[in-house]
Amino acid sequence: MKQTKDKPTDRLLEYAGSYKNLAIASWGLAFISAFLALVPFYYIWKIIRDVIRVAPEYSRAQNLSTYGWCAVGFAVLAMLVYMGALVCSHLAAFRVQAEMRSRMMKHIMTLPMGFMDEEGSGRIRKIVDESSAATETYLAHQLPDKWVATATPIGLIILLLVFDWRLGLLSLIPVGLGFLIMNTMMGARMQEKMGEYQNALEEMSSEAVEYVRGIPVVKTFGQSVFSFKRFRESIKKYEKWTISYTKDLRMPMTLLTTAINAVFAILIAVTFLLGKIHTGGANSAFLLNLMFYIIITPIITVTMTKMMYAGENMMIVEDALKRTDGILAKKALPQTNTPEHPQDSSISLENVSYRYEGSTKDAVHNIRLDIQAGEHVALVGPSGGGKSTLAKLIARFADPYEGSIRIGGADVRNIKESELMDTVSFVFQDSKLIKMSILDNVRMGNQNATREQVLEALKEAQCEDILAKLPDGIDTVIGSKGTYLSGGEAQRIAIARVMLKNSPILILDEATAFADPDNEAKVQAAFSRLSQGKTVIMIAHRLSSVTDADRICVLQEGEITQSGTHQALLEEGGTYAHMWKEFNKSVSWKVGE
Description:
10 strands; disordered N terminus
């Protein structure tokens, strides 16, 4: 993988593949179209020349119609050639965008499943979607325009110097000033500013996603947006960098706009200073050239504007490529060449430690835990104690940096990913349903399942009341025609999916957190059916749901501090007994007490 020290254009052509030649062809066609677009101005000059020669007897002018049609013909030809350039550039750009997204998504699929949690789904979505879209805009539009902007000054220099070199040089003064000013706007400092701006935008996008997901909590508890401190801070950070970036460009942009729009004024002012018009000493040749230059010099403004936007977009593309490389540089989970196969559904953790990237403290530390096949184990403890981290390590969402995890005697690092996914099922606290029919959502657990098998799984997951109220039953598409499910109902559909998968190991991570009392009872009944004959690891804050577990492990600050049955832990005292006491207080609390 080449890094972004290469030219952005070279990097884009790498993604273009066989469409690389189309991109190059688009630049050549754009270059040619720029020269063709200047030819009509030559014929306009000839028209003005012939008119001035015969003034005021304009009827004597010859070939005006011929010159006019020649100007129109070359203008149309230039337009057609430029359209051909855009067709080629768009085909190449769409291939580049598709290839970038494809590579990123394929690589993301090889990364640890905890990658999305650590990086944030909003940030990843922005990189995959918007970074690739930025390269499409640059390659499809800005690069052809850049080649037009490169060819146009060359043609202009020829035209400007051929007719009257003095006026030509005057016309080129703003061009030189414009280039000097643009260099100050495209330097390393501004590239750094662009990166900071994109970082702030990316962070705000990620936090916005998390905020939207938390809206039910906001509405339930009457909180304002400012209760989401991280989201508010990301907005303020974005505001800071936007204002800073704008202020830094304010003066250069003012000077550039003034310079590239001052060509006409410079021509008139200097002409008066030379005394050509003011003293009445102008001849017809000079007036002809002056009129021609006044007509053609606005092209300089258009050309410089295109070059400015191309330069700005190049900085955006460079930043987009850096972010793309940041994803592609993430290390995939290593896959073994000598796979092992679990002998049963037992789980063994030996001195397991794991630390999140950027953290200075272990999320779990030196964990030793043996779970027998068919045993039901609950993980409880204060928030941030490492419960979810430990569960995700068992499912190999990430690899511990110390110790090992074995399932059925086989190290999870040596179990093929497909086999591991068939062995372990995970039910999250906020299960996701895809916008397709309930049948297809449940069948994701087993693509070969029949309709009857799906219906049986839904029945066992206590979903019959859900199907009864839906317009098309099992064929109802979630999200269509205003059809949505509550959190508890979605959870039961997700349980049916896991039932259909029928993995020997089941991990339940706060699976009843979003369920109302009625749904919670049905979810618990579904879990009882689902858990039969399986090794179960359940994470819960509602301690009433774990009292029947074969073993309860209390995690605090990444370590197991207590382990035993519900009754044994109550007799032992300590953290669990205190948690149980506080839990009973909370469920028996009434208004007015």
